[in-house]
Amino acid sequence: MKRTVLAVLLCSVAADRGLAADLPQAGPPPTAVRYAPAVSYDWSGFYIGVNGGYGVGNSSWNSAAPFTTGNFTTDGLLAGGTIGINYQAGQFVFGFEGDADWAGFKGTSNNAYCSLVTAGAVCQTAEHWLGTARARIGFAVNRLLIFGTAGGASGDIKAGLNPPGTYDASNNFGWTAGGGVEGAITENWTAKIEYLHVDLGNATCPTNCGLAVPMTVPLTENLVRAGINYKFGF
Prior knowledge:
By secondary structure, the protein is mainly beta. The protein is about 10% helix and about 60% strand.
């Protein structure tokens, strides 16, 4: 009896092994697909570029006489060149930027004081150049940079009656602050748009501003500029 049971068990094991051999075998485990990590844009480097835009400002003529024109609007176009440097640490970008622009700003007042010397004359304030030197700090999201900026500004303030159209000119120093956004088009080319408030302080008009001389002539401006830069990496 024992021999019969043992024979049956041996036959069962042999049958199970034969059946397992006929079944399809599992293949090797699938190879994991690896993706290369996305490379973030690096804002570090020197850059040069061009910029252009439009501005609206305010001026006035004031004297101790007292004569005053009250505030009047100045506006015009500007265009020029830019140079700067950026250094990126994590997502923060620190930099310094300077620019020099031709400016076509002009504004006039028809205050009655302006025509005391010459009938029909207007009081005119103008500006023909503007430069800034500013620190920048920004937050980078790969190819997009959001930045704030502040620093010094300089420009000429010209004031005089028109006609005759002769002016006293003063090269003034003041301050500027603003912000903007910049985007990387390629590894080297970037484009930006920015807003700047500029305060050039007070100029003095000692000769060509009529009867109540010297006149104090302040000038402030609000600028919107676009620019294109070419970046050289470190």
